[in-house]
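Each record in this resource describes a single protein on a pair of labelled lines. The shape at a given residue is found from the number at the same position. The record below illustrates this layout:

***
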Amino acid sequence: MTEFAVRLFDMSKSRRPALRDVGIFSYALLKTLLLMALLLLQLAASAQTRVSKKPVIKKNEATAFTRYLQPAVFSLSKVMMHDVVNPPAAARYYAYCMLGAYEIVSQNDARLSNLGGLLKQYKQPVITTKTTNYDHRIAAVYCILETGRLMLPSGYRLQEEEEQFIAEQQKLKVPAAVIDSSIAVAKYLAARIVDYSKTDRYGRLSAQLRYTPVKGEGYWYPTPPAYMEAVEPNWKTVRPFVMDSCNQFPPLPPVAFSKDSNSHFYKLAKEVYDASVKATPEQLNIASFWDCNPFVVATSGHMSIGFKKISPGGHWMNIAAIAAQKAQLDFTATITVQTLVGITIMDAFISCWDEKYRSNRIRPETYINRYINIKWQPLLQTPPFPEYTSGHSVVSTASAEVLTYLFGDKFSYIDNSEELFEIPARSFTSFRQAAAEAAISRLYGGIHYRDAIENGQQQGRDVGAFIVSRLKEVGIKPVKCVDRFNNSL
């Protein structure tokens, strides 16, 4: 009952003795008019709420709605596993798919930073639909799926995810008009993000000359069992999101190739060989946990079987989701965190791939088979691209730097990202600890030399530190320090 109606009702009670003096008919008429006024006021208030008043989102509802985000991002991962999307390309898809969702929540909350000042050649698409007519949370989740549907090779598989998500909103009695407007906003943003993605030169990669391995003893050559072609040899030509250029953060030069058993390079290879021969159960677990090879081929006689997994970027996107859940971040903060991680892994891959095809260094498997033990095999299958620097070392370290800025250095969590592949969860006391473990896992797995790991970590720190500096410049603060995130760690 409105304040005006309450006052009118109270006035009628206080006036009843006087009303009886003018007769029953007059009193009954006034009572009828009063009831009609109350009804009209209630109808008007209801209509005003539906048309011009933004739906009220309770604090617990805002937090609960985040339950849709991790499954939405993992839906992207599932399609990428189906398509066997390589690690650099996967990072690109994660970044763009999260970008539209960030735009939706940021234009719902003016306190969030405009990414136009952060991203290269980016012009913020403006949502013209009134915020009172759609639910930004529904639009953001749908936009993640819709962007993936438009961009991924088998994106059509996400249509079922979209339909299931909308069906659940219908079961929750969300008005049809709100759902329709939310979908329209999501599709508009997804289309604008796809337009932006088409300017990053990715579409030109297929027109590049086919890659031919460099001739020479110290250079990379396709490895068994599948001897697959080099992955994304021209990835450095794709536009970064935040970095100034692909070679902005070059690592130290790799140790020079040598066959001499007294050389530094031979000792690097011997360390990899010895580590595999004397690996402890814990080292084997670490190597398996951080494998993240999207496509592993197992052979038996003339039969070959392919096994699909998430990429390093997919693993860190899930870590971001795990951290957001533990911190009980609200919907807006969770999307912000995952968007920034997506952007980070994209730039980290560009930086790393620039060096990989510049140094073009031989893999441990090839070197050890030629000069140490012809029958030796690494624990992990060697990925199909040059060795230096270690991609997981660069990407993990860069991601850890950004997440450390957002959540703090002493953020402990349990990472269950690999349980889908029957690999037990692992506990970490910080993102940097996790990144260091991911880096050294490459030596345990037999696919990287130590200098590629350690110099890759420094390269990742440089990329991460630069992105953090840019986040500060555009006003993106740590989540624990920002009131709008409704969270204090």
Observations:
- Residues 331-359 form the longest helix (29 residues).
- The CA atoms of residues 433 and 483 lie 28 Å apart.
- The longest strand covers residues 295-300.
